[in-house]
Amino acid sequence: MRAVVYERALPLTTRKPPVTTARPDGACAIHGGIALALRDVFSGQGIARMLVDDRKG
Description:
By secondary structure, this protein is an all-alpha fold. Helices cover 61% and strands 0% of the residues. The longest helix is centred in the middle third of the chain and has 15 residues, at 27-41. The N and C termini lie far apart (44 Å). The mean pLDDT is 78.
């Protein structure tokens, strides 16, 4: 995972990135799910779906 971070991130952010494992307290899964949902909703396709649905209503 660290190699992918170094490969995809900007040079300034990869000087000492804090790549660690998550604690299994349940909140990590919730935050990850929210992040995935937001990425989908605010993607180009997600916004297009909202606009099409809004016109139908």
